[in-house]
Structures are given as structure tokens and as C-alpha cells.
Amino acid sequence: MTVILGQTFTGISIGAVLLLIALGLSLTFGQMNVINMAHGEFIMAGAYTTYVLQKSISDAGMSLLVALPVAFLVSGALGALLEWLLIRRLYLRPLDTLLVTWGVSLMLQQLARDIFGAPNVQTRAPDWLTGNVTLIGGADPLTVANSRLFILGLAVAAVVALASTLRLTPLGRRIRAVVQNRDLAEVSGISTARVDRTAFFVGSGLAGIAGVALTLVGPIGPTMGTNVIIDAFLVIVVGGIGQLKGTVIVAFVLGVLQSVLEYSTTVSVAKVLVLVAIVAFLQWRPQGLYTLRTRSLV
Amino acid sequence: MSSASIILRRRFLSGGLALTAVVALSACGAKTDAAGSSDEAAQADVSGDTVKVGLLNSLSGTMAISEVTVRDSLKLAIDEINASGGVLGKKIQPISEDGASDWPTFAEKAQKLIKEDRVAATFGCWTSASRKAVKPVFEKNKSLLFYPVQYEGLEQSPYIFYTGATTNQQIVPALDYLKSKGLKKLYLVGSDYVFPRTANKIIQAYAKANGMTILGEDYAPLGSTEFSTIANKVKAAKADAVFNTLNGDSNVAFFKEYKSAGLTAKSLPVVSVSIAEEEVKSIGSQYLAGQLTAWNYYQTTAGAANEKFVKAYKAKYGEDKPTSDPMEAAYTSVYLWKAMVEKAKSFDPEKVKAASDGITFDAPEGEVTVDGATQHLYKTARIGEIGTDGLIKEVWDSGKPIEPDPYLKGYSWASDLS
Amino acid sequence: MNPLKGSLRPVAGFAGAAVLLFAVAPLALTDFRLGLLAKYLCTAMVAVGICLAWGRGGLLTLGQGVFFGLGGYAMAMHLKIADAGPGNLPDFMQLYGTATELPWWWRPFANPAFALAATVLLPMAVAALLGLFVFRRRVKGAYFAILSQALAAAFAIWLIGQQATTGGTNGLTDIQGFFGYDLDDPVNQRTVYFIIAAALLALIALARQLIHSRYGELLVAVRDSEERVRFLGYDPANVKLVAYVVAAGMAGLAGALFVPAVGIISPAMIGIVPSIEFVIGAAVGGRASLVGAVLGAIGVVWAKTALSEEFPAAWTYFQGLLFIVALAFLPGGLASLAGMLRRRRARQRKATVVAVGEAA
């Protein structure tokens, strides 16, 4: 029993990490249909921001909390810059965007290597995040790591913030208008170029926040982005492009699936099974879990 | 479409096919069984007043993290030797090639070093996969490779000198140590590639013969950074110790998860065989303090030779750069080659091989001796404990250098391993 | 323009390429460099398929590594069995495995005819299976790209996990013979090069025939406006499927010939990064132009070897920059530069000899 509960919670916490790294993509890829391979390097930028801040703010907890908004701004700025320099020229060519941003990701990785060195760097986690909470006591206790709870809370907060921005604010209305019908939005007086850039800023900024969270559970190095980028894209594709709820559901489902399979088989087998399941699922439902209904033929 | 163009196109197609057939037929060479021309091995070019050696390491890609440090210590050794007069009166000229963490590239660059640069010997490679990729190249061309990393054993190429530990100088002593401490229930965690899988096979065999039990065996793909499930499994298994053969980035995620799960070095120690000083620095002693490692050398190893090595390395590459076991083995390998060449009075690989048996060197890890039969080294095994300062402190050593036994022939429990 | 003159150009180009590959290169290059060229030509073979499927058909072929790997492993499995000799297991199985006989899925590859056919047919079958569903359901663009990458990742992880039967991360190494010929012999290495060069030329000719046929026109039409093609009564799914399957077969053949040329096939050649790299070469050279794609593929791998030796760190910046400039600012690749120059020259000529009615 404890095992099942424990694995379910592990799955949820894996799902929370997936959700955080994919959330920014749900905006840039899901809403704007841009395959940004450099998204992983924006996550990396967030993680390195935490590292740099920790050098000037000695208190680990304080520096982590400060890192969240700073990483959002750093990665967001990188994203807006990328959009302005390159991506706005490529909106109609998705594969070209993929390859161009892959080139960008290569360069950012090398840049990180030149600035911070090729080996991974370390950050200290604050003491209140290294322990764990006991949910069920007894001989076979079920414990949950504080860092995982923190990431789960962060993911939920980020989803709520993004969803309410999209639904309630004028910016969100403009983004939705551009996604649904770019030409109509343009003639209605919305500056689509500015909306694109803002959306890209927010999406990339969310990658920065994911980067801060990843410092608690994984390595911080030049290749950390490439490790997670494909998983992040898969979450969006399976969830359905342009659908936040699809992203949320799929992140948690994949997380639990992965953790259950890992427990009963091995990590490698679980990984292959999950990928094959995704390919099979997309054969059956190519538009993902939820689809955005449009009147276009394609 | 005009008819002329159709006719022409037919003609060029058939012409191309005919050309292909002619070339394919005329270019056929010797059959497998015929005496090939492979006997004429690429001769090393030692005519000038320098002798070229190849340095074959990944300078880019995922393995660059580790392999650049090996290249640096190889260069340090070469500089020292050149400053003291070179080898047989010739200065060593290193030719550095990038294996780019890609195995076919390693094979390609090895060929280049041997055939184009005509080096007298090559130093480098890290992963077993890269060694397996270059092994046929060195064997076919009858050229020497010095391989500086601990590995999974079960190999003995006539053209490779293995200056890192084989299994009976690292894994078996680590198991002996655990057994002596009464830690008899083990959990095995490793990255999914050759070294961990082979190492775990040996551990299984050892456990069977020594009354130890293996409670679980888990592999994660290389580069995998999600370890919460594995940490749960380890915790649930109630083992006495974890034997860790994870590589690279995975270690960071594993130890962070390990600590989060409430597991400590006291309650459930981890013995790692791929975590050296460089890795400790990037994982953080916050997560590692108190855990065990098994190597043949630590930066803290006592002795004048090591003091000199550490001092020279830091002077050349920076105070904050640690030295580690593979770096030491690489540094040692250049000096060993020099001693072999000087004993043979020749750069000819066959003569160097013939002269290799019994060569000793006062290495930073202590005295090492070349075993000519296996082309491995006699090395001292050491268990170390990771300190809060990021350095590794020796807690046990084998007392004297252990004879290399790559196929574990001297261990009855290992009889059906290879 | 004189129609005869227009159709002579490709013939002349083809003959020129044949002379370069079969006469100039073997004479001018050392055995070692010729071996490298053989490796580059294998990449170019993949690029021919990419030119067809992506350049002409608009399909996002990001999983070519899978097909390259299937072809390569099919060939290497046969060669390993042949090296081991009848009744023996390949060396790595004895080392890492416990089995005393070949796994069932290895056995058919002992037959050379089966293995040879499998190098091309296996990738084509997998591509057909994948493409059938994907194109029928009108999965487009981004989805297809991500799907291909997931497949590439899954295949690579699976291969790595099966160390006892696939060699794991090491892959299949140390391949000694090629259908009875000793690969150690420089003469035989040269023959392998000639076979690869001939195969490349044959694939180029095949792709050219396809591109200039009715099917080729249809493929471009599907790329540019799938709906219109559907309204005209064609099924775009079938049109796409053919291009995708042919490209997969070409990648498989390239993988199969890569094995005797390099003597190794490993999961490192299959995953996401190599799959992207296959596409990049074609993109830099010019995806829609056969010549551009082939030269681009050769050029990019050559530059990687040559420049990474000199500047391992700076090379990454240069590589990134090359992709960005070529793709963002030259969508037709370097091949389009030639077209631009030609157009500019034509415009200048037009400006001097003003022909009434010709100005568009």
C-alpha cells in the first residue's frame, strides 16, 4: 500500500517537474507554434542564475527565492531577444525554426561552457528543502521530500498564474485572439508582433523558473537543457497544441506512468515503453488529448 | 518534355550503371584468406629530433568534462619530460585530436594519428565504448595505445597498455571492504552501459560466493536525471549499502534524491567507483559527505611524488583544479612509456612491448609496476571517504600493489564470468 | 532556351561527378582520407532522401537516424555473424551475454541475401508503418517532427539497454570482413569506397528521375497546397508516403554501407542529435536542390572534421552560426545563392537588351 501511494506521489512529483519545464513551451510552441529547441538552454540560464546569485547572497533559502523572479527576467529577456532577432522571420517555417534554434542552443551551451566551465556547478539547497515530511508513520513510513513539495507548489502556482493571465488580462485576451485568428486580430488593431514578443518573453521566463526548480533535483551544467527538452515537447504534443489543461493532465499522467513502470521494470525499459506509448497514442489521436477547434481545413 | 531529353536521360542512367559495374568488378582485392598487405604496419616517424605522440581525448561533447582533465595531465607529463631532456634525446611533440564523445570519431582520429601523423604512441580514450572502437585500429596498425581509466576488465589487447585499474584492483577490494565491515546486503545502481553491467555481473558472482545478497539491480540511461523512483526502491529494499556505478550527470540527481529520501551515509552508505575529486566538486559535498569511493589514487594520497604532481598541476592549470585518479593514471602512463622506450632503446612498438615487463615508476599513487603478460599495472587499491571540504580521505588501502588480473582467473567464484 | 542544352547540363554534371569520385579522388587522396570521404558520402546518401522527402515533399524528416541505424545494424549483424564463423557467437555476446546460441531475431541475418535485403526493406517497412497512420490522419509539421524524435530516442535507448544482444552503447564494433573480403586490406577498403560512390550516384540518378517525373510534380504540389491536390482527386497521403518510404530506404542503404567503411555502428549514430545533423547538412546546402543537399551534407561533415580539429571550442559557435545564417537568411540554402546570381545576371542582361513583352 505504502509502495503504491509512494510511487503515485513520486509520479506526481516527476509530473510537476515535467509540467514546469513544459509550461513555457505551452505558450511558445502550443500557442505560437514555434519549435524552440533553445528552450532547454533558457532552463539552463535559470539554473545558472541561481548559481550566480548564490555567490552574492550567502543564505541559500534567500538566494533561491530571489532567483525565481530574476531567472524569469533573465530567461524571458533571452527569449524576447531570440524572438526579435530570428524567430519573427520564421513564423511560417516550423522546421526551419527548429533547426535555427538548435543552432542557437549549441551556441548557448558553448557560451555556458566558456563562462562557467565544462563541469557541472553546484548550488546549496536551503536546509528547509533538504529534509522530508512523513505522511504515514509506522514501520514502513511514507515520506515526501520537501524539495519535491516545493516544486509541486511552484508548478501549481505557475499554472494558475499563466491560466489567469491568459483568461483574465488584456494581454491574455490579445494572445488568444492572435492564436485563433492572426489576420482578424491584426485588423482589429492588435499589434501581433508585440503580442508575439510578449508571449515569447513570458514563455521563456517560465523556462527560467523551471531552471531554478531543477537546481534542487538535478545537475547544473551546459547540457542540462538537452536532457529535458524532448520530454517537454512530448508533453505539449500529447496534451494537444494550444491547450493548457491538456499540458497539465498529460504531465501528471506521464509522470505517474513513468514512475509506475520504473518501479516494476527498469528506468530504461520504462523510458522506452513511455515513448512507444506516446507514439502509439499519437497514431490514434494525432491532435493530442485536447484539440483547439478551428475552421481551417488543415 | 522533349523526346531528346528522355533519350539522353536513359543514356546517362545506363552509362552510370555500366561505370559502376566496371569499377566494382575491377577493384576487387584480396579475399579474407589470402595473405593481406596488412603486415606493413604504419611506421612511426622518428627521423627528426622530435618524436610525435597522439593525445586522443574528447574535447567536445558530453565526455569533455572528464577527458579534458586527462589531456591536461598528459600535457603536464610531456612538458616535464621535455624539460628534462626528452625521450632518447628527442623532444616529445604531442598531437591532440578531439574524439568529440562519439565512438566512430575516435576510430577515425586514431587512424589519422597513426597513418597521417605517424605517432610513436597514443594516449587517451575514456569510455569503454571509445576503447572498443579504437582497439581494432591499433591492432591492425600495430601501434600502441595507453588507456588511463579504470575499466571493466575482460580485455587484453596486445597493443593497449591499461594504466587504470582493472576490476580486481578496484571493485573486488571495495567488496572485500564492505564484507569486512559486515555490510552484506547490497543494492546495485548503475548507468546503462558496459562498465556498470559488467561490474555488476562480477559483484553478483562475488556475492554468491561470499554469502552476500543482492537486493536489487537498477540501470538508468546515460544522462538520466530522474532518480526519485530508484531512491524509493533503494529505501524500500532495506539494504546495508549501495554499490554505485552511475556515471556523470546522473550522480548529481541520484545523490540529491538520496538525501531527499532521508538516506544518509550513516544509515545506508554508498560506495561509488566513478566519483573522483572533480565530480565531488560538481555534485557538492552537502550531498556527498561521508560516502565512500574506491580508487587507486586520491589528491590526498601521501608521498613526495604526489606532492610534486599536485603542485605542478595546480601551478599549470589553477589552484582550484583538483587532481583525480584517471588524471594520475594518464600522467603516469607517459612516464611509463618513456621508461619502456629507454629500456628498449627504440620507439618500435614491438620492442617497446618486449621491454615493458617489470618497468616500475614512482607514481603519485605510489610505486606501480608493468605486468608484461597482461599489459596492466600492479596498483594499490584504496577506499576513501568524501569529506565536507570536497576532498577524499583514505580510510583503507590494500597495503601493497595488487597483481592485475583482468579475467579474474585467480578467483574461483569468477570462473564462469568470461 | 534550347531544350537540348537544358537537359545536357545534368548529364555533364553527372559525368563530372563520376570522374571526380572514381578517378580524381582515389588518385589524389591517401587511403585514410579516401576512407573519410567514403564516410561523408554515406551522409550524402541520407541527404538525397531528405532532399526528396523534405525539400520536394515538405515532410519533416527528423528521424532519419532510425532508418540509418536499422540499415547499419542489419548489415553489421550479418557481418558479425560471418566474422564469428558458423556455430560461433559474435565476440561481444560471449563477453556480455549468457546465451549459448544466437537470439531468434539474429538468426535470419546469417543469410547474406536476407541481410542485404533487410538493410533497405526494414527501414522502408518501418517508415511505411509509421507514415501510413501519420499521413492518413493528416498529422502535420511540428507533430511529425516531435514524433520522429521520440522514435529516435526510444530506439537508441532500447539498443543501449540490450547489451547482451546489441552490444549496448559500444554498438557492433571490430567488423573484420565484408562478404568474404578482408576489410583490413587497403585494396578492399578502396572497393568499399567505390561501391559507396556508385551507390550515391545511383541514388542521385533515382531521385532525379523521381523529381522530374509526374510523381515529382505531384509531390511538390502536395508540399505547396495539400488541399488543392486533394480536391483534384489525388490522395496526398499516398504521395507523401512514397517519398517518406523512399527516403527511409536511402538512409538504410547509407547506414548499411557506413558499416564496412567505418567498421562500427553504434547507438550514437541513431539518436536525436545525429538525426538533426543529417537534416542540417541538406538544409545548409539547399534542401530542394539535389546538388545542394548532397554538397551541403558533405561540406558540413567535412567542416566538422577539419575545423573541430583546429578549434574545438570556437567550432561550436561557428557551427551554430552557420545553421542560423543558412536557415534564417538563406532558406533555399547555399544552392539558392547560385540561383540568385544567375537571376541577377539575367536581370542585368535584360536591362541592356530590352525585350518587349518579356518583362513580367
TrEMBL record, chain A:
Protein family: Belongs to the binding-protein-dependent transport system permease family. LivHM subfamily.
Natural source organism: Streptomyces spinoverrucosus
Transmembrane segments: 12-29, 65-87, 149-166, 199-220, 232-257, 269-286
GO molecular function, one term: transmembrane transporter activity
Biological processes annotated in GO: amino acid transport
GO CC, alphabetical: plasma membrane
Bilayer topology annotation: Multi-pass membrane protein
Keyword set, alphabetical order: Amino-acid transport, Cell membrane, Membrane, Transmembrane, Transmembrane helix, Transport
Descriptive protein name: Branched-chain amino acid ABC transporter permease
Places the protein is found: Cell membrane
Principal subcellular localisation of the protein: membrane
Cited PANTHER family: ABC TRANSPORTER PERMEASE PROTEIN, BRANCHED-CHAIN AMINO ACID TRANSPORT SYSTEM PERMEASE PROTEIN LIVH
Automatic annotation (TrEMBL), chain B:
PROSITE patterns: TAT
CDD domains (UniProt xref): PBP1_FmdD-like (cd06355)
Keyword match Signal: yes
Signal peptide: 1-26
InterPro entries referenced in this protein's UniProt entry, alphabetically: ABC_urea-bd_UrtA (IPR017777), Peripla_BP_I (IPR028082), TAT_signal (IPR006311)
The organism's place on the tree of life at top rank: Bacteria
Keywords of the record: Signal
PANTHER family according to UniProt: ALIPHATIC AMIDASE EXPRESSION-REGULATING PROTEIN, PTHR47628
Protein name: Urea ABC transporter substrate-binding protein
Origin species: Streptomyces spinoverrucosus
UniProtKB/TrEMBL annotation, chain C:
Gene Ontology cellular component terms for the protein in this record: plasma membrane
Membrane topology label: Multi-pass membrane protein
Domain of life: Bacteria
A GO term for molecular function: branched-chain amino acid transmembrane transporter activity
Coiled-coil ranges per UniProt: none
Subcellular location(s) per record: Cell membrane
Keyword Transmembrane on entry: yes
Major subcellular site: membrane
Sorted UniProt keywords: Cell membrane, Membrane, Transmembrane, Transmembrane helix
InterPro entries linked to this entry: ABC_transp_permease (IPR001851), ABC_transptr_urea_perm_UrtC (IPR017778), LivM-like (IPR043428)
Transmembrane segments: 12-29, 36-55, 113-135, 192-211, 241-266, 278-303, 315-341
Name of the molecule in the record: Urea ABC transporter permease subunit UrtC
Organism placement in taxonomy: Bacteria, Bacillati, Actinomycetota, Actinomycetes, Kitasatosporales
